[in-house]
Amino acid sequence: MTRLSSATLAGLPADIVRPGYDRTAVRPGVVHLGIGAFNRAHQAVIFDDALTAGDLRWGVIAASLRSPGVRDQMMPQDCLYTMLVRDGSAEQARIIGVVSEVLVAPEDPAALVPALAAPDTHIVTLTVTEKGYKLDPATGALIEGDPQLAADLASLAAPQTAPGFLVAALAARRAAGLPPFTAISCDNLPHNGTRLRNAVLALAARHDPALADWIAAEGAFPETMVDRIVPATTDADIAALADRLGVEDQAMVKTEPFLQWVIEDKFCGPRPDFGAGVQVTAAVAPWEEAKLRLLNGAHSGIAYLGGLAGIDHVHEVLALPEARHFVESLWDEAQTTLSPPPELDVAAYRRELMARFDNPTLQHRTRQIAMDGSQKLPQRLLATIAARLSAGQGIDALSLAVAAWVRWQAGVDDRGEAHVVDDPLAAAIAARLADAPSTEARVDAILAFDAVVPADLAGNAAFRAALIRWLAILEADGARAALAQL
Ligand code: CS2
């Protein structure tokens, strides 16, 4: 079938929104690392809005740090793709034209550095997932034993990691007399800007202490909170869109109407006049903490409990009254640990979150959210639990979510069906659990895993007791039974 492209754009049905600017006049002011579906439905749309508003400095050169998949979807389409916004029976389609090129870093690492070092590049955004920063989830220190990071520590001639690319490009900018770019981490990590800065400075210092000092003095790494639910695109989504467009779009993304990007007001160079969905503010941490502990914490609980129960999608899990009760209980617990920004009405935010989770047209898979749990649990659930325990408060719902994650590591659900534990630490966790003969021993093996469980929780008797209680129920009777006992 004919593909979406510049040549086929004009023939699309009239109700499809098209780029409202001259694509040939756009200059690339942004380089994005990690072009997945989330970026295409979030930051890329914000920069597309800037182009639409008439500021043509904000085109995007995107890079994948891993595989050629997105490049192969987008380049034959002149990098055009459709964003489908779905809510109930309403569906809006908009063609996004902000991306001009997709590079595949492992194929040609040297090509990405000049893009990052170009005078027009003012902003670098990153969605490289939690594990892409090469930082220990529990402590935040550089994982020096990581083979890719070890290579970047040895030489930056052909970088492999996100921090490696940034350091190589910042060195090139400094050598050329250019200012640094503003580097914006858009991953769901607490203090993501500080983490990225720490990773970059630590790596730079190993190669050239003067470079590290320059980056520390001149660079900017704002904190951000990003929010939009973007389920992975399926073949059925692509086929349905082809029926509507009359051409095939292999790079389409589907998402919800909601979009939020809170960015710390800390740029070292130009930035667009951000429009709808973006808040530039002095303090991001309270937003980030509320989002991670309420939205993402509930998401992970729903993913593991729903996944164990053999339920495919978030909205189907929430069709169970006991699952809704679990989410509300988890939020009741998490809420007392927050210092929400004055503008955030937590009760209204919770109601809105539940409605977003209930959106049946998103088809958000529990398996997708279950990925990389070892990287997600510390900020989504464990920090919340530590805060509750130190205030002498209960952790019933929060500890059920963590126990469900432990149970998920066994690789079989409650019906006896096998699943892949998709996680960079899956093998290490499986090895620990393999030698553990009882529920207690499995909990102790997890508590002793200091890459995930921080020291203050590892020795906490109340946490251990709660995990043992829930894991025993999950192992004997399954997730539905555990939910019914909450
Ligand atoms: C989800 C997030 O996959 C996951 O872990 O919890 O991607 C979530 O959909 C986004 O953070 C929403 O902003």
Automatic annotation (TrEMBL):
Provide the alphabetized UniProt keywords. Oxidoreductase
Q: Which residues form the Mannitol dehydrogenase C-terminal domain?
A: 284-466
Residues in Mannitol dehydrogenase N-terminal domain copies: 29-273
**Highest taxon in the source lineage:** Bacteria
- What InterPro entries does the entry give? 6-PGluconate_DH-like_C_sf, 6PGD_dom2, Mannitol_DH, Mannitol_DH/Oxidoreductase, Mannitol_DH_C, Mannitol_DH_N, NAD(P)-bd_dom_sf
Pfam families with a match to the protein in the record: Mannitol_dh, Mannitol_dh_C
Q: Per the record's keyword annotation, is Oxidoreductase included, yes or no?
A: yes
Molecular-function GO terms, alphabetical: oxidoreductase activity, acting on the CH-OH group of donors, NAD or NADP as acceptor
List the protein's name: Mannitol dehydrogenase domain-containing protein
Specify the taxonomic lineage. Answer: Bacteria, Pseudomonadati, Pseudomonadota, Alphaproteobacteria, Sphingomonadales
